[in-house]
Amino acid sequence: MQLTYYGHASFSLVINNKHILVDPYITGNPAAAGIDPDHIPADFILVTHGHGDHVADLIAIAGRTGAKVIANAEIADWLETKGIKNVHPINQGGFIDFEFGKLRGVNAIHSSGLPDGSYGGNPLGFVINTAEGNLYIAGDTALTMDMQLIPYWSILDFAILPIGGNYTMDAADAVIASDFIKCDKIVGVHYNTFDIIKIDTQAALDLFQQAGKTLLLPEPGKAIEV
Description:
This protein is of the alpha/beta class. The chain has helices at 52-55, 58-65, 73-81, 150-153, 171-180, 201-210; strands at residues 2-5, 11-15, 18-22, 44-46, 68-72, 87-90, 96-98, 101-107, 124-130, 133-137, 158-162, 185-189, 214-216, 223-225. The chain contains 6 helices and 14 strands. The strands form 2 sheets. It has a 7-stranded mixed β-sheet, covered by helices on one side. Strands 7-8-9-10-11-12-13 form a 7-stranded mixed β-sheet.
């Protein structure tokens, strides 16, 4: 499975020849310098919550590509008022079949609100099971005991966890989260974009190594195999 990181908490996956874009925040993202949002492909767009650093390019990319947007019911309704009609509203619950695999929404401990002040509903994470591998996208979240449910639903090949602290888990909590979800291969996101979430990346890498785990920190704009 291929993952391309766009900085902050934005990335895309290629699964079953479908491009799945997550939380498109390119415009105004200091970690995404040199990345043109008009050239990012998308068949599906997943939205974890409504904050501007996750939806800045959502309407533009959804409109350009016609991608199906998967988001909580409130964000889906908001998108329809903005002219985006190809939406699939979800909430926490069971697995839903899509062309790339099975997806379910899971709890994320955070806040949500849309850039124009509209109510953003509950933040989400996603568990995705596919023929090419299984993954967990935590979204913006604190460490939560709910993560211990995830191994009941999926044997994960990798997980995408925030590590920047302040608004989300830090690296130390992400190590604990990796224990909860029974997954030792972690892609770290939501760090170093702004001063308030700057971290010592080497210390984070060392924490994971000491725990016998792998932390991947992809370079923005580069694709990696996961």
